Amino acid sequence: MIAGKDKELKLLDKASTEFAGKQLAPEREANDKYPFGPFFDTVLQKAHELEFFHVMLPEDLGGIGHGMAGLCIVLSNICREDASLGGILFTHTAACELMIAAGGQDRVRTIASESDDIRKFLIACPVFNNPSEIAHLARAELKDGKWVINGSLEYVVLGGLAGHALIPAKTGNNDAAYSWFLIDSAADGVALSEPVMSLGLHACPAVDMTFHDAPAELVGSEGTGESAFFGMAAQMQLPVAAMSLGIMKGSFKEALDYSKGRFQGGRRILDWSEIRMMLADMVVKIKTGDMILSAACRNADENTPGWQANAAAAAVRIQADACDLTTDGIQILGGIGYMKDYGQEKRFRDAKHLQALLGLAPMKKLKLIEDMIR
Q: How far is residue 310 from each of residues 102, 235, 313, 371, measured CA to CA in Å?
């Protein structure tokens, strides 16, 4: 995914690869025990200090301006070792992009520069949902000239971790539209559940949130939540694909390393044609995914006409391939592929979990064909 002459992206690639290998890989199994084990605060703070959370933001908003390609490089390298941190990075970045799409650039600039404490800096957001697909959203209303929110919202990613939360809510009598509101997660009127157990990404915590006259700040214009969401989703589908591609590369490496050292029938299983064919299929999926994602990132950063449809198709394809590839990754390891002290079973769960980012996978396919028809 790196342009040959782009030194900054090469440095970013090197830094994120080394970080993932040193900080994530050694404690992957322990980190995945959260919430029944400690949370990796130290790792999260180091990622913040390395400015991984500022990669995509333009410089005038407090970021480092490496664009879509830069974010995809970081997420792919991180998710080779542990997609949970990738989920945290994705969620915060998606929330920032949502606010920008809604017209809240000034608020993003303030948040990007206001704190060295990663927990106070982060923004929670229900990124595993498309709000248009949720039957019951919280409701916001004006009281004494100020917005307050009542109701509840399920599975808000980083809700128990982040200092801010970006929440979709209905306003007025128009149930067909919603708006985005920024809240202080520690404010009066905000209640958080215990961390919600999920299929994958255990160290990317999510909670259910309940609101009772919780003070809120309207982001952008009232009733424009859907257009802001799809503006963000068009951008952030490529980082989702990069996360899945990283999982694929991690799964292949573990399968290849294991097949070199495992003997059966007097020879390495790598020398069995069936295993070589499975590994070859994994390589094909990874190389194809790399080419698709590189082209899609370049089109997005250059604003090439039609890049949104290319991004959507790339994400759907790579996510599906990741689910197939991680299944093969488990099979190559045999019975121990299901053991938690190996990374394969986690990658299998994470790949499935990532398919729900930004809405249900079948609905994303339908949205793609609807846009093409129009």
A: 23, 11, 5, 12
Query: What are 14-44's pLDDT values in tens digits?
Result: 999 999 999 999 999 999 999 999 999 999 9
CB 189 within 8 A of CB 148: yes
Average pLDDT of the segment spanning 46-73: 91
Same domain, 183 and 287: no
CA-CA distances (angstroms) from residue 207 to 147, 183, 186, 263, 338?
23, 15, 14, 45, 27
Say which residues have a Cβ less than 8 Å from residue 79's Cβ, sequence separation at least 6: 86, 242, 243, 244, 245, 246, 247, 250, 350
If DSSP codes are grouped into helix, strand and coil, which group holds residue 26? Answer: helix
Residues 331 and 203 in one domain: no
| C-alpha to C-alpha distance for 139 and 158, rounded to whole angstroms | 21
The domain total for the chain is 3
Residue of 170, 188, 187 whose CA lies nearest to 179: 170
Neighbours of 282 (CB within 10 A): 24
**Shared domain check, 335 and 212:** no
Structure token digits, residue 345: 């079973």
DSSP result, 325-353: HHHHHHHHHGGGGGSTTSSHHHHHHHHHH
Q: What is the spatial distance between Cα 285 and Cα 94, in angstroms, rounded to a whole number?
A: 26
How high is the pLDDT of residue 1? 53
Tokens at 314, concatenated: 């790339």
Whole-angstrom distance, CA of residue 94 vs CA of residue 85: 14
Residue 68 pLDDT: 87
Structure tokens at 298: 């370049």
Describe the crossing of helices 67-81 and 225-261 by its angle, rounded to 10 degrees: 40
- Kindly state whether residue 95 falls inside one of the protein's structural domains: yes
Write out the residue range of the structural domain in which residue 78 sits: 7-119
pLDDT tens digits, one per residue of 211-248: 999 999 999 999 999 999 999 998 899 999 999 999 99
**Structure confidence by residue, pLDDT tens digits, 134-180:** 877 899 999 999 999 999 999 999 998 999 999 999 997 777 789 99
In a domain, 1, yes or no: no
Across-strand partners of 191?
A: 210
